[in-house]
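Quick check before the chapter quiz. The format below is the same one you will see on the exam, so make sure you can read both the input and the output lines.
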Amino acid sequence: MDAWAWWALIALAFAVGEVATTTLVLAMLTGGAAAAAVVSLTGVDAPVQLVVFAVVSVLLVLVARPVAKRHLLNPIAMRSGVAALVGTEAIVIESVDGSDGRVKLAGEIWSAKSYDGESRLGVGTPVYVVAISGATALVAER
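Here is the expected output.
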């Protein structure tokens, strides 16, 4: 059997093992074995194939695995309703201060107050929504 076929079998074995363990280590070794299989198809010697396997595997474990784990462990935050407006941009259409004002936010007119309670924001000023309190947007200048 050719060397590339052995590397492919090793990659398959690591992949099956990854399904059983879900640690992402064997998945990275699968990538290393696959890289070695590709290199063996070019006709390089076995020691070079082993070096490619080792280098690719180590790089994947050190670089790709932490990123993959972070994505698996931290689900995407779903914001809906008024919570989805926090952080978005609005435009002041009536002067905003610590007690009153109006902004155009997501195509609608909202009552607004300055977030710090002291700032005065003039008409046309781009602001961002820091929080929503009832039906009032608490905004700050960008």
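If your answer matched, good. The chain has a mean pLDDT of 92.
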